[in-house]
Model the fold of this input.
Amino acid sequence: MRSVPWWALLSSASAPILLVGGWSISAALQGPSYDPASKTISLLASNGAAGYWVMTSALIALGVCHVITAWGLHPAASPGRLALAGGGLSALLLPLFPAPSSGGSLEHGAVVSVGFSLLALWPALAMRRGAVPQVHASTRGATAERNVTPVRSNPSDRRRATGGGSVALSRTRTAPWGLRPGPSLMATASMWLGGAWFLLALFVHDTAGAAERVLTFAQSFWPLVVVVSCVRQTNDDEGLT
Done:
């Protein structure tokens, strides 16, 4: 399994900071008339808002961070990486379809819905099932270590011919914690529950701002959890070699 590059760790760590910093500064610029508990983040990036450029820039930076993280998250399954990148592209499209200062917008709602769905699904789509075997390839007395695709079962020590040498599957290692089925499915389920909470807060309790902030922060923070787990797994594997 390939390691995660340093710039993917940087992008994943920057995403939640940029999001929270963007809505905090924008809300301060908007003044006391803006209630963050009841009003959504989209209003901060609506045309004519005092913090329009701050929130819009934060959303663009957030989208770029998600795309970069997806590009560098090699251990994750490809469908999950594509979904994460798609969520980032949705954030990049939001400035083209800003929310109106009052009322609703079908275009804006569609972009938000697609972005939320992709970011809610990507943990489940990125998960790795089974163990990842570590392979030792030996040819004429020289040994070289390489990784192979994850398998569903844990193979015992065995050898198979490969041209002039042989390959020994000496041990297996599990997938990084953030890509295992349990945490991945739990993250996806929690995000969908958060989406239901947001709708309830929007139409019933008038606390859409608070619900949206919790949900969007969770979606921006989970890529960092996955990346850190991949980095730790790589460090642990290097310590065993």
